[in-house]
Amino acid sequence: MRIEQLEYIAAVTRLGSLRRAAEELHLSQPALSETVRNLERELGVDLLDRKRSGAKISDDGRELLPHITGVLDAVDKLRRAADDQHHISRMVRLGTVNAATVPLLVPTLREFHADHPLTQAEVIGAQQAEIHRSLLEGSLDLGLVNYLRGDDVPPDFHTTELLRGRPVVCVRPDSPLAELSEVRVTDLLEQPLIVMRAGYVMHRFVHRLLKGRAPTFSYSTDGAEMGKLMVAEGLGATVLPDFSIVGDPLERSGAITWRPLAADRTEVLLVIQRRRSGSVPRAARDLHDIFVRRAAAHRAATEGSVG
After folding, report:
1. CB distance 244 to 196 below 8 Å
2. Total-model pTM
3. Which of 4, 127, 135, 149 is the 20 to 30 Å CA partner of 10?
């Protein structure tokens, strides 16, 4: 028996239908129904009354509901007590693929530290697959990852969109590409190119963009931050989401700039994820909320800078 199974039954009871419960829990209705069936088999009781018109809590389920509610209340009290007990020494662990690290992550951590001065925040740079694995294992509390619009989002995570942008070409202001109003693929192929290593969304995008063609010379690196530093040092150009460049200290200081890609309307999403099952520490919930609020402020501040 798992706590989330009891939470699902409570949601069906509160909302009056399996369909509405599935929508609130961000689960497919078949997945929710199968989870409840597993609990029914374990208890030997039909908790839901299933009809053609839908499924609702059964009479037997209602009789067991006080016990289910009691367990959930006890778990909630335990979580709150654990949060309070470990609030001072708690370390929140955040995995990030290093996109939008400086423009979004730094102000978020600054605000989090002001609200939680005794809580440590550990920021771990990793590829998306490693972040997902660590979230499921519980060694990370939150993860910042990128998707191309249309990518499938794993159902094991609660996912909240933070930023949405377009791939652009990041260059030094004295680069020949900076003289263009927009950069074509043929222009990009004539310059040294800094690409993300395999496993990053932008590696996949650039591979698709070039369609097997090779630039004059290329470097491979981990993450947007190193890519921007290499651009600033004159090693070449790189392709990154616009939200990773606009507002970056290197862009504000004039060390790097960007140009749009010609004839490309791809969208890149930056999302924050956490594991669906299991408890979420209070400090991690607070950090999640600050990310959402700061992302909204970041979007408002850069609306006139991108397009």
Report:
1. no
2. 0.67
3. 135
Q: What's the rounded Cα separation, in Å, for the pair 307 and 305?
A: 7
- Pure H helices in 28-125: 29-43, 59-85, 106-115
**162, 237, 196, 289 alpha-carbon torsion, rounded to 10°:** -20
Tokens in use for 256? 């790097």
Give the Cβ contact number of residue 24 at 10 Å.
12
Alpha helices in the chain (DSSP H): 3-15, 18-25, 29-43, 59-85, 106-115, 128-137, 185-189, 201-210, 223-232, 249-252, 282-302
- Please give the Cα distance from 257 to 36 (Å, whole number): 53
Give the largest CA-CA distance in the chain: 74
Q: What is the pLDDT of residues 53-71, one digit of tens each?
A: 777 788 888 888 888 888 8
d(CA 113, CA 118) in angstroms, rounded, equals: 8
Measuring CA to CA, how many Å separate 112 from each of 87, 143, 221, 286?
13, 16, 30, 8
